[in-house]
């Protein structure tokens, strides 16, 4: 706590009072706002100007760096109001998911760092506790805010503190079960907690489910409330009519906006209110700040507010790369190499046309997982379950029990949230559920929360599970077919972005199950590659005369290939874009031990540390998994053998 107070005192002294006043008069408010403490010194008119400047600069910054765009445009006024009313960082703000916190960052001393957003050594695109004292809780996965804020509220009570705890949740995050677990807990305990629902009628994909319909009914209640106030003013001078109207009001209230689900869970419900009306937000938050017990504020915002293109198409502008604000994200560039996501989307449609048993499931990631075309062509076999990964996995298991062939399209990092269901509901019953794991490996600007580094390790230890690691686009399509035809649970992991540019045939023919492929025959050392790092292995193998094997499967491992290579080489190097602890390299070590093969092995991948955010190629270089980094590690392990092979290769050339 003392660090937070010291930070505030330091921020307040950064500018003299006279210079503060000059900057306000000159219109450079954001240059002056080094902390929320300074924001709280402004009048209402100046706050409106701050909001205008924030929205304009947000468009400027994100168009230069890329990042989450439409969600942040929708929370400008809410962010200003929260920091104006609450005594941050002493009061805790917990942002759900965290991809709508760019304005929060701009108001909390990071305005001048926004040009480094999501870049290596720059600021994160999500809240991060070690980045700022104002980031009360690190987030990037959805539906955690209420649980964390409740813990903070009860922690403050235990310590005798009067500080406030606020959870800001939205973008479909209320569809996840964890949010309801927290609401259920919070409504039954004595705590001062404020939950703000930022209701923008959106997640990343279009909203789905009964909750979305319920919130629409609450919106209808807002119009009812307005009509009620108008009726009071018109009928107050006609007592008989007023009495009749009062009776009708009581009956209507039961149908429309009385005893909401949140009130029944123990919260005092307020709303819905306009989330872009800054004065209304401030007045409402000030009132709620003084109330005791669990409070629930329903705020209605527009995703993409203030930038017409994003207002019209908030999905397209959810997370764009760099773009020209005057034009938008429409690109005139020639089509680049297809991404792995596009390869999957095309395969999914082709296999669905071939096999009517195929059903596809996504946890609110239709666009990100490449399923838009499939959802349009096969709507009866497409299921968006909302942000509910646990439900998605068990739901797929139920479909498989009825003879269907479920394909769960899910990011590697999000499968972690359905781990118990993966073990008990799918693997234990050996059900044929296929998991298409997008964003395997490092993901670049999104950083450690979205990195798919652990799926090999956490699935390899599960009985009945199989793990497939394609090395390029063509192999990815064929191995998707192999996985689909397998009678048991299987994952196919592939990275974000484009592949190598190899030609891809529209075939549904599978590759032989569990078989690796020798890609370059050499001597001395052998590189066993699992996935896209095969390309680096081939460059090294061809240059230095080493053997290179495309392993394809992390489980089942091709034991015949491993045995043959281990007995004919002096050393093995395993390469994987995942965690080395429990990963594919560990599988090779275990296999060699079981087969009593005494061969020196170097396992390369990501070590026992969380990766940072930044450009994909920069990160590979940083973690020494680019060509030069791999070469250096091999040379360090086998210096004499490395030089000998290099000499032989030069003589042969």
User: Total strand count, please?
Assistant: 17
> What do we call the CATH topology of the largest domain?
Rossmann fold
Strand share of the residues?
5-15%
Termini gap: 67 Å
| Spatial strand order of the main sheet | 7-6-8-9-11-10-15
CATH hierarchy, class of the largest domain: Alpha Beta
Attribute tags:
single chain; alpha/beta; Rossmann fold; seven-stranded mixed β-sheet; 17 strands; 44% helix; 14% strand
Explain this structure:
With 653 residues, the protein is α/β, with parallel strands linked by helices. It has 28 helices and 17 strands. The strands form three sheets. A seven-stranded mixed sheet has the order 7-6-8-9-11-10-15, sandwiched between helices. The longest helix has 26 residues, at 210-235. The model is unreliable at 1-26, 222-231 and 251-257 (pLDDT under 50).
